[in-house]
Amino acid sequence: MNIYINGESITLDNSNTLTSALAVYQQQDNALNNFALALNGDFISKADYPITAVKQGDSIDIFAPIQGG
Amino acid sequence: MTINIYGTELESRLLIGSALYPSPEVMKNAIIASGAQVVTLSLKRQNPSDNGGAKIWQYIQQLSTEKQIHLLPNTAGCKSAKEAVTLAKMSRELFATDWIKLEVIGDDYNLQPDPIELLTATKELLAAGFKVLPYCTDDLVLCQRLYDLGCQVIMPWASPIGTGKGLLTPYNLETIRARLPDATLIVDAGIGRPSDACQAMEMGYDGVLLNSAVALADNPVLMAKAFSAAITAGEQGYLAGIMDKRQTAQPSTPTLDTPFWHQPGVN
């Protein structure tokens, strides 16, 4: 199945969790440091990554710190 | 005197942003020179090729540890309560703080906050345990509603973000101060000159949050010092009690024993 991480299409086997989806994303040379994420627009805490299932067409947005005013 | 941010007492009444500086080094030096104990920062979609953001984050973490500076994440770029709440929750996890500078923009032209979405997001975030610092317009009733919801800190704008126009409607800001005497009020956005910050403090505001005015100065480090001094001057002026304006001139030199030919009725 396909999901999207920061707009990039990622192909996963069926029955995946957020943890495994992020592992696949990182294998594609996408370093993940100091980040938080939203699944389909809703915040998911780090503690819940292993128990949160992702399904076909899901969209994950990964956010990192930047300067701000 | 200290400023109270949800029970945290801080010596400095200047809150400073971390954006728009010519380099991360200048940002770090300007923040140190400002004496600010609160630094704003933000979140954006992670771009693996962007290493500049990592450097800035590294400096801010360093300042946070060494100078005991508090992080104040914002929800810049959000246009709905739902977006702002999601970003606030991500910020809380990432920055390990329940402080949030809540921004919900309602208009792209002047980046004016959306009061309806702001109230909705504020209510939800306060219920979720956040300490909300809402960025809002200088509308008295909106500020009152935010206070009634439980915001102990309220941050009306002086003028639109990044314009440097200073206090466009002093009457509105003075009225908010008068009507919300127990709220911690911080003027946020639109400050251009140190005298703008001083003016806000002379009104009895508790603090000033700014970014562009320092970051875009020819010498940000020197400007940071200037703002620090201006805010202290304004605060002391307010505490000292500023004289009332008078309609007519009054001699400041005593008139007793002035030469007789200046007395009324003497030619």
UniProtKB/TrEMBL annotation, chain A:
Q: Which domain of life is it from?
A: Bacteria
> Which InterPro entries does the record cross-reference, listed alphabetically?
Beta-grasp_dom_sf, Mopterin_synth/thiamin_S_b, Thi_S, ThiS/MoaD-like
Q: Which Pfam families match?
A: ThiS
What PANTHER family does the record tag this protein with? Answer: SULFUR CARRIER PROTEIN THIS
Descriptive protein name: Sulfur carrier protein ThiS
Which species does the entry assign this protein to?
A: Thalassotalea fonticola
* Organism lineage: Bacteria, Pseudomonadati, Pseudomonadota, Gammaproteobacteria, Alteromonadales
Automatic annotation (TrEMBL), chain B:
- Could you tell me what this protein is called? Thiazole synthase
Q: Write down the superkingdom of origin.
A: Bacteria
Pathway(s) annotated for this protein in UniProt: Cofactor biosynthesis; thiamine diphosphate biosynthesis
Q: Name one Pfam family in it.
A: ThiG
Q: Which organism is it from?
A: Thalassotalea fonticola
Q: What GO molecular-function term can you cite, just one?
A: thiazole synthase activity
Main role?
A: Catalyzes the rearrangement of 1-deoxy-D-xylulose 5-phosphate (DXP) to produce the thiazole phosphate moiety of thiamine. Sulfur is provided by the thiocarboxylate moiety of the carrier protein ThiS. In vitro, sulfur can be provided by H(2)S.
Thiazole synthase ThiG domain location: 5-254
Key words, A-Z: Cytoplasm, Schiff base, Thiamine biosynthesis, Transferase
> Where is the organism placed in the taxonomic lineage, from the top?
Bacteria, Pseudomonadati, Pseudomonadota, Gammaproteobacteria, Alteromonadales
Can you tell me which family this protein belongs to?
Belongs to the ThiG family.
Assembly: Homotetramer. Forms heterodimers with either ThiH or ThiS.
Which enzyme class?
transferase
What chemistry does it catalyse, as a reaction equation? [ThiS sulfur-carrier protein]-C-terminal-Gly-aminoethanethioate + 2-iminoacetate + 1-deoxy-D-xylulose 5-phosphate = [ThiS sulfur-carrier protein]-C-terminal Gly-Gly + 2-[(2R,5Z)-2-carboxy-4-methylthiazol-5(2H)-ylidene]ethyl phosphate + 2 H2O + H(+)
Binding positions for 1-deoxy-D-xylulose 5-phosphate per the UniProt entry:
162, 189-190, 211-212
Report the EC code(s) recorded for this entry.
2.8.1.10
| InterPro entries in UniProt | Aldolase_TIM, Thiazole_synthase_ThiG, ThiG
Q: Where is it mostly found?
A: cytoplasm
Query: Which locations, inside or outside the cell, does it occupy?
Result: Cytoplasm
Instruction: Tell me which residues this entry annotates as catalytic.
Output: 101 (schiff-base intermediate with dxp)
